[in-house]
Amino acid sequence: MKNTAAVVRKLLIQSKIKTKSPLRIGSGTDDGITDILILKDKHDNCFIPGTSVAGVLRTEIEDLYGIEAADFLFGCIGDDEGNQSMINISDIVLKNANIIYRDGVAIDYVTGTGIDGAKYDYEAVERGAKGTLDIEVTVRAAAENSKLKDNFIWKHEQFKKDGDFIADMLASIADILTSGINVGSLTAKGYGKIAAKDPVKIYDFNFAGNKAADNWLNWLQTGKLPAQAAYTADVKEALLPEDDFVMTLACALRSSLLIREDISEEESKKYEERKQRISSVQMKSIDDYVIPGTSIKGVLRNAAFRILMALSDGNETSADLFLSNLMGYANEKTGKAQKSRLFTEETYISEKDVQKILHSRNRIDRFTGGTIDAALFTDIPVWQNDKNLAPIIFKITIKNCTEAEAGLLLLLLKEIWFGNINIGSGKAVGRGILYGRKCSIAYKTQTYCISSENGFKINGSKEQLENYVKALAGELNGK
């Protein structure tokens, strides 16, 4: 009788991973000053738990192949029966991890102002930290005869012809890791983006072959991988469910930009020598200027609420319900919460594309209209050097997007494109105004390209885009 529990095959991934945006995986503790501290191991190293990576990859596999495939690969617990996970994912210990501090405040999107007592501070690992990810898949004899392959959704032709559905799923994981995933908290606001340094490779040890066992033992003893990989990731065509709405928008900066950050002590001394007192500077991430995903998400939410209120004739309940379903919510009184399906990414602006300019102003007495003595203050925003370029790139994704939600994002695109949305501080003095230059959209197997070059052009069905906006208006008004 054949032993169905016998190990017949091993598939292996070993990849160098790099953080592409700030990472926040909290330890659940604070130090009395900072509200959230970063998770560290006993050697004081920041790390990404394998469970965090596994959770994200399981969701990705479920989106691409269905829940049965995710249960097959990652295991499940049922009422009567379940199955053991085939996949083992290591922790990623991060080297050269630099701890940064950021803060946030909850915004009342009706008034557009901060909520009292809702400011918080937290640690994060700055982008650029590196580590190694190991993934090992153990295939037992019973798994190869699974009924899963009868209705399998194939993503890779090279495995379809051999009926190798296990390798097909692992190849998708290799593709996903190469393009990047988000782990930890605040992922809907661009945090926790990690990606492989090089295209991820899969190594296949099929013990039915003559040398597979020797190669596996050699790997265990020396860490030396076979010369030939079974698969190398290819992400030319992103693996996305067709119901995901993905928009990439390139913008130019019409005015100055200031996402406030306290000036460093060293830089502050230089200005003090010139008898200049600097209040704040544009936020940076390593050598680039940054627009945090938290700022982008907040601006989008506020603008979306205004649009929904206008389309629903001021029905705040309808607007709030639509927005909560899309962007998530947390109700402390009821304990109910829902994750956001709208994801933004951090936007990085190269130093070569902008320049710092000192901007001094006086505080004004609102009663007299005159200046307040000794209330001169100076900020250092940035201005775009070449107005013909579009160095500010926003990427916005809606998971499982409805046509009405696609319509809302198109209206948000219009507001940004024509400079009706300010981002950052100093809105009252005209800061943070953008205008669109180029936008690409992918949704329901269709692609669209919008460009301002030589006039306003749309490549793709204009009628279909208009139908999405009509779907939004219809849903809000019960039609």
Can you lay out the helices and strands and say which pair or pack?
Blueprint: E1 7-19, E2 47-48, H1 50-65, H2 67-74, E3 87-89, E4 92-93, E5 99-108, E6 113-125, E7 130-140, H3 157-160, H4 165-179, E8 181-182, E9 193-196, E10 201-206, H5 212-222, E11 231-232, E12 245-253, E13 260-261, H6 265-273, E14 278-282, E15 284-285, E16 288-291, H7 293-311, H8 316-327, E17 329-330, E18 337-338, E19 342-344, E20 347-349, E21 354-356, E22 359-364, E23 371-380, E24 382-384, E25 392-398, H9 403-417, E26 434-443, E27 446-451, E28 457-459, H10 462-476
Parallel strand pairs: 14-23
Antiparallel strand pairs: 1-7, 1-9, 1-10, 2-4, 3-7, 5-6, 8-9, 10-11, 12-25, 12-26, 13-14, 15-16, 16-20, 17-18, 19-25, 21-24, 22-23, 26-27, 27-28
Largest sheet: 7 strands, antiparallel
Helix content: 25-40%
State the total count of DSSP E strands. Answer: 28
Spans where pLDDT lies below 50 across 5 or more residues: none
User: Whole-number average pLDDT?
Assistant: 86
Secondary structure class reads alpha+beta
Computed CA radius of gyration, to the nearest angstrom: 26 Å
Amino-to-carboxy terminus distance: 63 Å
Beta-strand content estimate? 25-35%
Note the overall shape: globular
Helical stretch tally: 10
